[in-house]
Amino acid sequence: MGKSLPVFNFDQLGQKLGLLKSQVTSFSTASAPNDGRTVDDFKPYLVALNLTKRCNLKCEHCYLDATTKAGGGSDELSTEECFRLIDQIAEVNKGCLLVITGGEPLVRPDILDIARHAVSLGFMVVFGTNGMLINDKLAKELVEIGVMGMGISIDSLDPQTHNAFRGVPGAWEAAVAGIEACKRNGLQFQVHFSAQPMNYKELPDVIDWAHELGARVLNVFFMVCTGRGEELTDISPEQYEEVLSFLIDSQDKYQDMLVRARCAPHFKRLAYEKDPNSPITKAQGYMGGGCLAGTNYARVTPNGDLTPCPYMPLSAGNIRDTSFVDLWEKSEVFDSFRYPHLKGKCGDCEYSEICGGCRARPYVDHGDHMDEDEWCLYTPKGGEKIQVAFNTQEETSIEWDSAAETRLNRIPYFLRAMVKKGVERHASENNIPIITIELMEELRQKRFGNEKPVFKF
Ligand code: SF4
Ligand code: SF4
């Protein structure tokens, strides 16, 4: 992952950067009430809970000192505070995906209690982890709790490269052992790969490897670096285009594994250029691969600051002082993402509705999160804004019996709409008036055979 950034409280930052605050304040209050959308149009689909700074690795890019890595710092949210936070998120959307991460979340002693609490409220819970602490006992317990899956970081297929980057001998071997423990115990796993200059050429092999291993999702993360020049460790814009294009083609090749770019929203522009009707183009939310920061995505830091995404160090406030509900619904920071006044080529771009560019990159580069995303090579042609009709519900007379509906509702929300649409289309084409659990099973068999689908179906 990219270098973590210090989080700024918006008010404190405003004092330091009066100009920026006045810019953000003015466009959020001026534009929000006039475009017809309300806070109900913005539900969190994905909340990343960075619950600890503790870590069992020594990644060379990490800014944390050893004491903080060992103890997490004195200001981490307590167990009770985590419970309260999760209760508050449930007030806004308990159907959202909670990603419990860190640091290394599994070194936090109460982490399973926190996961258990979230699952008991109906959340889908996944972990973002280096995988090293997952053994059979833990994997079994995570399954019993109802954790949906583990996202495990692998930076290279060469153990030495991964271990050198992570700063600990044996890190790669332990991560792969963690994956094997997940497999033995029926715990779904995803592979998380951070594209960097040192490893991006390995991507074809990594995708193949992850697929062979049985990963249901391969997420390729693109780093957000703190600047240019000596700190620039990102891949170049040209390399971005190359990797994104490759990922789009890979999704066609590996149909039983979700392949997505994370934090490179022009993935959506490239997908549209290749095929305006492709499943990637039409996908939204977590499945979409665009940027959800502030609109459907938020991150909580270990000490309770709420930011639009892990790379965006602008805090809407702290959940110790203000409830998640109020911060999510009333924050000027979040409004600035929901009613954006994009500048530069992103503002002029016909793809701005489906892409919009990364907001964190211009922010960390020069402090203006509405500015253009310079990591995109596209030159806007000035046409109409491209819209994808992924929000429209198709009218249908097909009914679902109650057992089939229950099964449908067990599917994670971000897959549910796609599954529902597919089953209804099949029913309609075959004159089947009522969808039953038998029909769902028949289609599941056709689609996946004896393979397990990405998530419970
Ligand atoms: S603002 Fe950038 S880093 Fe944050 S979620 Fe969007 S694409 Fe990712
Ligand atoms: S110019 Fe901006 S909005 Fe257009 S495709 Fe590139 S990043 Fe996306």
From TrEMBL:
Highest taxon of source: Bacteria
PANTHER family: RADICAL SAM DOMAIN PROTEIN (PTHR11228), TUNGSTEN-CONTAINING ALDEHYDE FERREDOXIN OXIDOREDUCTASE COFACTOR MODIFYING PROTEIN (PTHR11228:SF34)
CDD domains: Radical_SAM, SPASM_MftC-like
Protein name: Radical SAM protein
Record has RNA-binding as a keyword: no
The keyword Metal-binding is assigned to this record: yes
Radical SAM core domain boundaries: 41-253
Keyword terms of this UniProt record: 4Fe-4S, Iron, Iron-sulfur, Metal-binding, S-adenosyl-L-methionine
InterPro entries: 4Fe4S-binding_SPASM_dom, AdoMet-like_SPASM_containing, Aldolase_TIM, Elp3/MiaA/NifB-like_rSAM, LI-POR_suB-like_C, P-CP_red_C, Radical_SAM_PqqE_MftC-like, rSAM
Cofactor(s) this protein requires: [4Fe-4S] cluster
Gene3D superfamilies: Aldolase class I, Proto-chlorophyllide reductase 57 kD subunit B
